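Lab meeting minutes (informal)
Scribe: AK
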Amino acid sequence: MPKKEEKTKYRQAEHIVENKALSIWEALIPVFALVGMLAYNVYVFGDDALSGSNQFILLLGGAVAAIVGFFNNVSYKQMIAEVAENIRSTTGALLILLMVGALAGTWLISGIIPAMIYYGLQILNPTIFLAACVIICAIISIATGSSWTTAATVGIALVGIGEALGVSLGMTAGAVLSGAYFGDKMSPLSDTTNLAPAMAGGELFSHIRYMALTTVPTISVTLVVFIILGFTIDTSGVADTEAILTNISSAFNINGWLFIVPLVVIFLIVKKAPPLLALLIGTLLGGVFALIFQPEVVTLLGGGDTLTFESAYKGILNAITVDTSIATPDPALNDLFSSGGMAGMLGTIWLIVCAMVFGGIMDGIGALERITESLLKMAKTTFGLFASTVGSCLALNVTASDQYLALVVPGKMFSKAYHDRGLAPENLSRTLEDSGTVTSVLVPWNTCGAYHSGVLGVSVAEYFVYAIFNWLSPFMTLLFAAFRIKIKQLASK
């Protein structure tokens, strides 16, 4: 085989596209266009931007990249081939997202998630109220995979309890958000926790284990600060959660046996079982425990009067696949006790696919290669590369005003740079979460900042200083990078 033909075949196999004619400014045109369009789109649609308009804007960004490619003699076929390769590389992540939705459904109807909330609320104490808020919201957010749901339900209740005790609204909101984002960040049920490794080219449970290295110290410091604050403030009154606990126990059979299922899943994760297998077993066990402990709930979801094979089958399949909601006397709990099933994950899957279209065309025209070269020249050290990633995530949270895009765009831009430095993808996915996921709530005009401020009734300015976990996380990841603590290398290196 001629050398030129052999080289071409090798480069195609590596899926690395170089375009020597493309200048750095041409490579950045689609990025600037995308950020500008996203910023305006979020301004117009607000919280509804993720319902579909942001996804279409990603496709428009891909169209801008394609125009740049056409002017630089890149064929349509080559661009589509890179898009197909990008989407193929996320197949595992997409399947995991679907299984996460399924697991959330059976864990809800079995009473596992309600049990976590029930026992979590019982650790409230006025002296350690703020630290308890962090722990409760962390437990609930891990169980639900959503900081938004946690803040809109238990978070509102805790802010009300804090006000009754005479605790500053800003302090309580900061404690709520610190715990909620810790749980959101570490939960395999969270869409951002799935999105970050998908963008970086990593694996879900490996990402969570590696992320714990920076996240556990950060939440520990946060808890210490809130414990100290708890001893320095005067509280009055009693934390009344009796009504909430009564409503939970009236809707579900709450007992300690329900924790067997999450313990089994944790055991499988520790033993490094394939993620899909661990999630599938957790889903099926959740269905079995639902039949044992919550037969009335399963019967109701199955549309029957008594528990039969047909109503059981229908009830569990509904929980796995579509929207599920368990009614309680408390309207706030009704929002908490709801799950979208596999269907609820389709929005995130849609976002990933559209992001892969943009990233694939950027790959196809050689833009990511050129941007990576420039980034590596500026970031001459490993610390510089981590700092550039953090800066990009923060900038996108401020400009694009969306948490997901602060993961998607830097994730695609930096993935090759980390690979070229011999760094495992877990380094990038962890940095994306440490700087992109958690800081979104600190920007008033970001969808997360606007949402939480509105839901909790506390301005960003009031809770900013007390959202300790959120602003400390990027500093912690930079500290680890500066001292090269647990910087995972690629196996091939």
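Next up, CB showed the second protein from the same session:
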Amino acid sequence: MTKPIALLDLGAQLSRYRDRALAAMTRVVDASEFIMGPEVARFEAALAGYVDVPYAVSMSSGTDALLAALMALDVGKDDEVVTTTFSFFATAGVIARLGAKPVFVDIDPGTFNATGAALQAALTPRTRALLPVHLFGQMTDLGDLWSSSPVPIIEDAAQSLGARLHGKPTGHFGSMAAVSFFPSKNLGGFGDGGAILTRDERLAERLSILRVHGSKPKYHHHIVGGNFRLDTIQAAVLEIKLEFLEEWSTGRARNAALYDQLFAESGLIDRGLVKTPTKSPGSNHVYNQYVLRVENRDDLQKFMSSRGVGTAVYYPIPLHLQQCFSYLGYNDGDFPNAEAACKEVLAIPVYPELESDSIRRVVDEISAFYRL
């Protein structure tokens, strides 16, 4: 039987850091400093240094990072936050949780990201923030809107840590950038986690208070926050894994380039059966996912599963058509680019340790499905 190819194989990289991670976890256990231990501050400093911003405030998850960022701006009832309809649910869920209104926009069909023009066109007097998403590992290029927006911009950078736009990493464009350390992310922990990157000292201080129920000093609450702290054990592991992030990003980009070459040679693109990822000018894509647009997606996914190749659909339903947002009044056809993407996208394996023979086999299997 042909060896299966997983969509993501976290175990393939484990040997690089396993002993160090276990030793770091043991130190935390022996010190019994499980909450806000010294490893948290060390990791925050290392992360801030990696993206060259003054402040990184760790959080309990990428979702809580987005939530806390909106809370830091006092987003609430009757406010509007403009964001993309093609993203993971948390992007819009955090807006609704605060009583604010998600205002959705369509995407660029090539990059899957919202455009500056679309976000700007959705601004109203009630808009409190813009929330663009750097989807699949490529930063959204909002052009002049990054500097001219009349409201704060929060970068949803859950999938794009390590990516750059015109030479600058995430955290250098909006007021804040929220990142995720979910295990499948570019920098994944041994559980959940997240962080907010910012260049604003006032926001960093407010975020550090919000994550401990809004208290400073302890038991003195001037604002209502939440329990958004990153576990010390996660910080200890992430500090070690951060050392490998550039190497892993380079590995995924290398694999993506081979896919690009093989798909171009296969005839699949010329026949309009497959479209490979589009890169924006001035962008370096770190490929948290390598996402194709394909004909007959659902049958192709079933075929690939039968051939032992892991795939995933990110995302099958756009946010504006999710049942929980029906009260917003959106309908089929409102955002055609996103709706088409939901029917066509398919992520294939691209993790750094994936061997070239496996990449060739993935392309061969897709070609076999279309009988090329």
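CB comment: Residues 11-243 form a domain with the Aspartate Aminotransferase; domain 2 fold (CATH 3.40.640.10).
No objections, moving on.
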